[in-house]
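Annex B. Sample input.
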Amino acid sequence: MNNNLIFRISLAAAAFSIALASASAQQKKQVKDTVYKTSPITVTATRQEAADLSVPLAVTIVPKELMNNRRGYGLDEVLTFVPGVLAQSRAGNHDARIVIRGFGARGSGERSNAGTSRGLRFYLDGIPETEPDGRTAFDLIDIAGASSVEVVRSNASALWGNAGGGIVNISNVPAANDPFIEAQVQAGNFGFLKNSLRAASPTDLGKAFVSFNNTTFDGWRTHSESANTQFNAGLVNNMGARTKFGVFIAGASNIFRIPGPLNQTQFDTDPTQAQNDTLIYKPTYVMRDERRFNRLGRIGTTFEHTLSRSTSVGGTGFLQSKYLQRSERNTFRDFNRYHTGGNFYLKNTMKLSDNLQSNLIVGADEQYQDGAILFYSLVNGGRGTLLQDKREGANNFGIFAQEDMQINEQLNIVIGARYDNITYYSENFLVPGESEDKSFTQITPKFGVTYRITPEHTVYTNFGGGVEVPAGNETDPVPTYGDDTLHVINPLLEPIRSTTIEIGYKTVANADFLGDATVSADVAAYMITIKNDIIPYRGGRFYFTAGETRRLGGELGLGIRWLNGLSLWAAVTLSDNRYVNYKIDSVYYNKSLAGKSADYKDNKAAGLPDFFSTIRLRFEPEFVAGTFIEADMRLMGEYYVDDANTLTVPSYAVFDAAAGYDLKISDALGAKIYARYANLTDARYAASAWINPDMPSKTLPAYIEPGLAGNITAGLTLTWYPGK
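Annex B, continued. Sample output.
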């Protein structure tokens, strides 16, 4: 797409948001009965329930209508509607690249662990999916069965700890209290088939729910097939007026093959091919049957108990077992891990005067993961000779406190801080006595102010810090040149330390100037300064740190619902991401360049586009109740994938369309059907890209992961409501 066109679209979106904010601010405080009544939106971004309009953070609750009628296979399908969130499917399956305001960008490359993210924290029913070192695998996340998705786009390390560049909180607990049993089947091109069964019911013990999914996908590229079976169950119990208790069980078996990246010529010739060129990688991705096979299960609990009218305590606990198999880096690997932890908090709400209320939360988090790793030589995609037998563990401990002072129901002042201690453990069982522990510590502050202009309009600002320690494989990667020359630099990696300054405006209000409509708008601007930004080199063979990086950005989240059934949704992100201080000794990239250096000051940060946006127009006509039609447009600006700014990913536009019908067969039985045509124009585009890829001497570098071609998915859902 022409960059001038992207600029014009961006400018129009920004102008519209300013006009909307100005016009909305002039609306009357009283909500009219003829328009949707705007109920308060509650979020948990501050680790306790609070009205979104009072929270001095950029928070997005993904509306349920944006989560429905999709394949529900990857997180990208939902998070693409969140401003500031770059969500890309790497091969059209469960493996997604998730970046929030630049955090998580480096988790893409040959040695960056496919199927995971970095720098961001994910929670499922209050239990952390993120490991102690900041990596997250998505195996247990069933986005199609989620009842809510909340995204904190602001840097939230002061409350949530390591890798708190963004928070994604997913709930599987059904919102409704009525019992139901639901069966769904979805089928589409490239052998996509998903069967789901969900049920929920109030019981004497509380609200119980269960879901089961089995998804298979032949893959649209060679060597990209996948299969994922998921199980989720839970019981949420109000044991009394003062006590809440929850038990959650989750399990998954997830296997997916990785086609690898293509160079520009391969991408232009045939984007469906896998990486199978021995001039780039030998053996190739196909030769070594590059894949991940993860089997894991978890049980977790949550509780909250009210001690008095002003004080309550609560917490979580969980235990998880993982058996992971991988063919990667020309070795076969077995991982046996257990992951356990929990948290405890105390909340106190005190009315200090008629105009002043204190809301205090203090608590502690603990996560520990440990286990054995066996490396074998790779023989026909399977185990050969044992090469390495070691233990790899990590512990993440943090304590936090935050005070939210509410003044005159108009002003909220938030002050908080957190202390984190993250420790790695390693032990080589083949070399007795070879072991190492390494710890990182950080104190992270937070300060924020929210001012309520009217009950429906607020402005806010916040200042905060962030911390992200290097992941385990970043402190102990493979040798780069066939020897141990560069091992010495990686243990010296320091945590990424960031400072964020943010301002924003939020509203949920009726808008007479748009007709009979309700508007929700979220406008945010930020500046993030990052010290020790960790940069992958040679596909992740080793990592180096940029001295300082600066990210400037503006975001617009917009939703307009008209009474006639028409709605418009938009998520627009503009940013400028640059290296402020970044000089690297060239020997780290090419051994023959010893004694020389490269200075990347003022270069664009690799992997981060200056512009991306998703817009949806949806219509639910009153004259055909239960029917909907919708159209999506996804736009992406051009960006660089290397620090030298020589390799680019072109801009693109992708269009989708969908239609469906919700049929009420009887009071107790309903049916839903839908069909979605994704990538209507069969556009050829790079859905994801590898950062600082290998630069082979005899061919072009491979870094492009092609986006899914045009495809149709159709689904049928039957829902039975017992007792109706």
